[in-house]
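Sample entry (143 residues):
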Amino acid sequence: MAVGAGRPAARLLGLPTGSYEVGAYVVAGICYSLAGILLAGYLRTPDILLGDTYLLPTIAAVVLGGSLLSGGITNLAATAVAALFLTQLNQVVLAAGASTATQLLVQAGVLALSVVARGVPWSSVRARLRSRSLEPASTLSSP
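Predicted structure, serialized as tokens:
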């Protein structure tokens, strides 16, 4: 976590950041290869473009879970909840009879809305709403 959250700070602590980064990529590669083998075994006739349909939902679940794509500290439970949400969203879209293209468009729309919502300074919005609710009634109804 220290290497992902702040590489310069981890270096100052004396952690071997290079070996931790390489180790993370090695573990991720092993997990990817195991997932590919399991998926190919499940389908029995693997295709070169087999994993393309899983790309957007995977990235969307990570982003919706609150992780930064540039790295840093993440929350596994939030990512799991986001993945569950996207799965249920896909089921609703499919139950409505929409095509796969519509399903991808809905996922992209939800992802865009979450990125926009994350950029809003919610604390200042709450403070502004509180200050308006505390104003006297005469200032709210003035022409």
